[in-house]
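User: What would this chain look like folded?
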Amino acid sequence: MSKILRYHFELSILYSFKFVKNYIKMKKIFSLFIMGLFLMSLTPNPKIESIKIGAKAPLTDYNMREVSGNEFSLNDLKQKNGLLVIFSCNTCPFVIGNKSMDGWENRYNDLYEFCKKQEIGMVLVNSNEAKRNMGDSYADMQKHSTHEKYDSPYLLDKNHQLADAFGASTTPHVFLLNNTMNLVYKGAIDDNCGSKKEVKEEWLKDALESLAKGEEIKNPETRNTGCSIKRI
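Assistant: Here's the prediction, encoded as structure tokens.
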């Protein structure tokens, strides 16, 4: 091989190596960017501030359509000792689960029965207005409720009015109200979205039990985790 050909051959190898190196580097940067966007969608929006413990619940007379076709307000669904409000949806893996985690939805009916024993109402609210054409329409809610055999009422929050008033930021996001509709607990259902069997801290059930007994709730606020509520 002549010196000139050898030079061009080595140069092409060098450029190929640099191209591969830069490609790998850009691929890593792109992957990190995508992961960042994904995590942002799961993190509560810092600009959305939820109502404070002790505050009066807003929009308690606001009527919303339930999957049965009837309309209810929060006041309609309140029981003797209060009302549990869970902002939820049909599409978030933190609700419905996926291959790697259970999701919290498989605890909804158990919570409903637990609430009944404590004489506390329970309602699920779908505020995902930006996903009405992507799995969170009223018809989708009806199908999902039937498929999952929800015991709890499931309401459509048009234009996320209730979510905005409460400052709800994720699905799920829990708000527990006492019999005067003041907030006594907010946050998460428990400490393990991944596995119902591996739950160690049942924050919500502890709060429900304390509320029904008229006792002070030891942990009135925990960190809510889930997909961001999809607002328009």
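Confidence is low (pLDDT under 50) at residues 29-43. If you want, I can go into more detail on any region.
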